[in-house]
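REQUEST ID: PR-0412
SUBMITTED BY: lab tech R.K.
PRIORITY: routine
TASK: structure prediction, single protein chain
INPUT:
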Amino acid sequence: MRASAAWEHRDADVATRINAAEADAMVAMAGMVAQGYYLRKTGVKKPDLGENGSVDMRNAEMAIGLAAMLAAGMPIPEGPFEPPDAVRADATARLERLWRATHKLLFDRWPAVKRLSKTLVHRDRIDQAELDRLIAGC
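STATUS: complete
OUTPUT:
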């Protein structure tokens, strides 16, 4: 992916833009979720995700704020922003829903995550065909 889903779909209809922003949020949260899941499986009770975790969470929060503002029909400011109070409850509900969805997605596909991570330890990039094979388990 060359850019975020929200950026790639910036000129699309509102529903597509909301879905794209939510996809970006899940991507941002996936690393934290996977790392926490892996560490707990290896006996770490409360994983410390460090600064990268907080950067990823901030990226997820920005994407979720964008989705909430789009859903409310609000104008989207340039650059970083805080969602206004009018959409904060919606943003919080979206965050909770997407956090659970990210957990479920990774838990349901954990063997594929492990295959992909083993490959990426040794290589910087893979193509779509190889990604598809790794996910399929071939």
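NOTES: Residues 7 and 16 are 11 Å apart (CA to CA).
REVIEWED BY: pending
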